[in-house]
Amino acid sequence: MAIAMKADERSVKTKGDLRLLRAGGMVPGTVYGKLLSDAASVSVQEKDLKSLLRSHPNAVLELEVPGQGKHSVMVADVQRDSLNGRLMHVDFHQINMNEAVRANVRIDHVGDSTGVREGGILSVVLHELEVQCLPGDIPESVAVDISSLGIGESLQVKDLELPQGVEAKSDAELVVLTVLAPQKELDEEEAEAQDVEAKEAESRSDHAQHEEISTST
Predict the structure, then answer these.
(1) What confidence score (pLDDT) does residue 213 get?
(2) What is the mean pLDDT of residues 201-209?
(3) DSSP state of 12
(4) Residue 20's pLDDT is what?
(5) pLDDT for the residue numbered 204
(6) Which of 156, 157, 154, 152 has its CA nearest to residue 194?
(7) d(CA 190, CA 168)
């Protein structure tokens, strides 16, 4: 179900005007989309946007665009202050509820790993998964059951169980998480080899993600 959000028309353009707007608890934004006559300059309540980004950043919104009616949109981009993290600008993208979209969703691990119970160390490599599905089917998160994961074992993107209609677009070979052997039981050479292995797994995941970005652009 879409979340209702109201946007105010934004006519201010100068940096000084934008500072005053933000000081008043508003975040400037822009709405883009095929069904809009033109990109709309808007502002939204900062507290509402913060709440949305904390709870469900991929939610479908029913945004009332001044002068152009209500439209189904999603948050496409958020700009933050590099020093204090304050919200500076938001882009909304108008969507078609009958057309698939891509989104990054959080990965949650559940259960008590066999390997961790035996003293292993859970190393999480991938925190988000890129998926493609209809806007109404975007999951809030993807749960990964690690109960049967032993020491030295890993889970990859291809091992994840996704809801019906949801397709993973991240590389299938990306390592999501792995259980490392306890350091105290390793000699210096083994500990170094294990550290190299973990870094290589993370490097492979980062490289595959960069390749995806390059390919999609």
Answers:
(1) 41
(2) 56
(3) -
(4) 92
(5) 57
(6) 152
(7) 35
- Tokens 């170094």, residue located: 192
DSSP state of 2: P
* Gap between the Cα atoms of 128 and 135, Å rounded: 17
* 68, 36 contact by CB (below 8 A): yes
Pairing of strands 40-45, 128-133: unpaired
Q: Which of 13-17, 141-145, 199-203 is most confident?
A: 141-145
* DSSP 8-state code for residue 194: H
Query: What six digits make up the tokens of 175?
Result: 């390592």
Question: Considering only 136-150, 160-174, 185-199, which range has the smallest mean pLDDT?
Answer: 185-199
CATH superfamily of 102-216: Ribosomal protein L25, C-terminal domain (2.170.120.20)
Count H helices and E strands in the chain, helices first.
4, 14
In the block, which residue shows the tokens 């665009």?
65
- Determine the Cα–Cα distance for residues 137 and 35; give it in Å rounded to an integer: 22
> In this structure, are residues 118 and 94 in contact, taking their beta carbons and an 8 Å threshold?
no
Q: Where along the chain do its domains lie? A: 3-98, 102-216
User: Which fold is adopted by the domain 3-98?
Assistant: Ribosomal Protein L25; Chain P (2.40.240)
- What tens digit of pLDDT does each residue of 84-125 get? 999 999 999 999 999 999 999 999 999 999 999 999 999 999
Please provide the size of the chain in residues. 217
Q: Is 152 left (phi over 0), alpha (psi -120 to 50) or beta?
A: left
